[in-house]
Amino acid sequence: VKVGLNLTTVGHLGAFFKTWGADKAPTTYNTTLNVLRSLWSFACKMGYCQFNPARLVKPRTTDKRLNKLLTVDEVESMYTAAKLARDKLLIRVLFKTGTRVSEALGVKVKDIEATAWGGTMAVLGKGNKPRTIAMGKALTKQLGEYILTGKMGQDAYVFTKNGKGTGEVMTRHLAWRVVRAAAKRAGIEKS
After folding, report:
1. How far apart are CA 121 and CA 85, in angstroms?
2. Which residue(s) pair with 131 in the sheet?
3. Rounded to two decimals, what is the model's pTM?
4. What is the H or E stretch that residue 134 is in?
């Protein structure tokens, strides 16, 4: 049914989204809804119509975080699929400690301390707030071996672009490329 903007009702939009939007991803559905809301808002401001029916259509909601959670097996598959020791360690640090990428990339050798029960890693969190993260024995040992193999000094960043503990610190962009590449090689398709 063709209806002008000024005669469109919530029922018309509901029917449209029920047929057109049935097989669409929530992001596509919601983007289209936002475009239509904007269109009717503009039409109302210009005096073409009195009411914005798109405001009453509910957007689809999804818990994006649940779609992105990785299982332990998926993380291990990514670890196995990573090519460089640096990349394997980055994946392990991110998933074993829960640090943000920017926090992990800012870690220097002097920020890591071995303890009787494992170790700690000092990171600079959001808002430049320092925090200490506990690590298990296996991760602490792996970090220690990586640092010794690279013959890194106390002021060296653990994660560098060249993967040898020397040179420039790894960028967030490169870190995400490393993680995504490992996920792709492991056959994991989550964004």
Report:
1. 19
2. 123
3. 0.65
4. strand 130-135
> Cα(178)–Cα(153) distance, rounded to whole angstroms?
24
Residues forming beta bridges with residue 133, ordered by sequence position:
121
One-letter amino acid at 163 equals G
Distance CA 123, CA 103 (A): 6
Q: Which residues of the chain have pLDDT under 50?
A: none
Q: How far apart are CA 170 and CA 151, in angstroms?
A: 18
Between CA 189 and CA 187 the distance in angstroms is 6
CB atoms closer than 10 angstroms to residue 150: 19
Cα R_g (the chain), whole angstroms: 25
Amino acid at the residue 157: Y
| pLDDT at residue number 165 | 66
Burial tier of 44 (Cβ tally within 10 Å: 0-12, 13-18, 19+): middle
- 37-75 per-position pLDDT tens digit: 889 888 888 898 888 999 888 888 766 655 567 888 899
